[in-house]
Amino acid sequence: MDVKTVCLGLLSIQPASGYDLKKQFESLFRHFFPAGYGSIYPALADLAADGLVDCERIRQAGKPDRKLYRITPAGRSAFRNSLAGIEPRHRLRSEFLAMIYFADQLEADRLREVLDRRIEELRAAVAEIDELEKDPLATPTSGARFVAGFGAAVAQAAADYIEQNRGLLLAHRQGRRPRRSTAPEELQAGGEQGL
Amino acid sequence: MDVKTVCLGLLSIQPASGYDLKKQFESLFRHFFPAGYGSIYPALADLAADGLVDCERIRQAGKPDRKLYRITPAGRSAFRNSLAGIEPRHRLRSEFLAMIYFADQLEADRLREVLDRRIEELRAAVAEIDELEKDPLATPTSGARFVAGFGAAVAQAAADYIEQNRGLLLAHRQGRRPRRSTAPEELQAGGEQGL
DNA sequence: TGCAGCATGTAATTTGTTACATGATTAA
DNA sequence: TTAATCATGTAACAAATTACATGCTGCA
C-alpha cells in the first residue's frame, strides 16, 4: 500500500483536492503514514489516468483554481480489492533507537538532550492525537478513532519507557567528564561468535 | 543516519564481514532499522573507499572467502561526529494502521484476520526481544539493552491496545454470518462486543 | 535429491524526499 | 512589510528493495 492507495482511500470518504489531502496527511496520518506534495500530486495524476478518480476544475475568486477529485465506481472497487488483497506491513526506521544503541559513544549531555527531545516529541504527539480524538471531524469513523487511540497509547508507552529507564544509560557516567584521550582498545578479530 | 552509518557503528564495536553484519541486522536491528545485503555491501564498499574501514580478505577451507572489515581511527572519529551532529528521526510507515483507518470498508472476517495477525507478530517480537535481552552476546552494551527493552515495551503496549480495543471496530457488525454451506458450523459468535 | 548455510556482489526498479517554480490574498 | 494560507505542479536526487548471478559444503 503506497501513497496512491491511501489517497484513493481518503477520496472514498469524501472528494478533495491535493491540497486538502495534504492537510489530512498532516493531521492524523502524519503519525503513521507521512506524505508530502511531491508524492500526493503525482499520485492523483496517476489515479486520474487510471480512471479511478474524476477531476473537476473549480475557479475561485482571488485564489488559484482548485482541482477537486472524486472517486469513481471503478476506483471504489479497486480500493476495496487492494484492502482485501494486500498484507499490510508496519515499517519502522528509527535513527533515534540506532543512536541510543551506541549511547556509550555519545557525550552525556548530548545523550540527555536526545532523550529529552524524544520524550517531548512523544508527549506532544499524545496531546495532539488526544485533541484529534475529541474532534469528530478529524476522527469521523471507528477506524479513525481506533488508529488515533493506538497512536496515543503507543506514544505514551514509549515516553514512559524512556523516562523510567534513562538511568540505565546514564548510571555509570559522571555528568560531563573531560577526557583527555580516547583510548581505543579495540576487540580482537578472531572470534566468529557475533550476535 | 543511513545504513552506511549504522554499519560503521557496528564495526566500532567489533570487526565483521557483510554477512556478519546482516545477521546483526536480522536480530535486534530488524525491529527498528532493517537492512538487506543490497544496502550493506555497497555501504561497506563506500566506507572502505572513504578510508573509514580497512578490509582483510580471509581464505577459508571449503567456504567462500570472507572480507573482514575493521574500523580505522578516521572511521571512529567520523562515527562519533555523525552521532554528535545529526538530529535523529523516528520514521514510521504503517500500512497496518492505514488499513485499519478504513476498517469499515473491510469484511469482518478479513478485519479480524488482520488484527489477529498483527497481535501475533507483536507478541512474537516481544518474545524474541526478551530472549535477546537475556543473552549478553546479543545485548552487550547498556544501549543495546535499553533499545531491546524499549522495543519490547512498545510492542507489548501495541498488542494490548489492539486486543482491548478491537471491539470498537467490530461492535456494530454482525459476527460471521451463519452460512448455509456444507461446512459444519464452528462456534457461534457470541463474544466479540464484550472486549 | 534437495535444501539450508556460507559468502560475495551488481543492476534494475521502485519510491519517496527535497528543492525549485509561481503568484494572489489576507491578517498581524 | 512580512508571513501565512491558498493552490498547483516538476525535476533532480537519494535511498532502499528486489531480483539476479554464482558456487561449494553438509545434512536429512
What's the CATH topology name of the largest domain in chain A? Arc Repressor Mutant, subunit A
**Amino-to-carboxy terminus distance of chain A:** 33 Å
Globally, the shape of chain A reads elongated
Strand order of the largest sheet of chain A: 1-2
Polypeptide structure, described:
The structure is a homodimer of 195-residue chains. With 195 residues, the first copy, chain A, is mainly alpha-helical. Chain A folds into 2 domains: 3-85, Arc Repressor Mutant, subunit A (Orthogonal Bundle); 95-170. Helix content of chain A is 56%, strand content 11%. Chain A is built from 7 helices and 3 strands; from the N terminus they run H-H-H-E-E-H-E-H-H-H. In chain A, strands 1-2 form a two-stranded antiparallel ribbon. In chain A, strand 1 and strand 2 (63-71) form a beta hairpin. The longest helix of chain A has 29 residues, at 142-170. The radius of gyration of chain A is 23 Å and the shape is elongated. The interface between A and B is large, with 71 and 78 residues. Strand 3 of chain A pairs antiparallel with strand 3 of chain B. Chain A binds a DNA duplex (28 and 28 nucleotides) through helix 3 and strand 2.
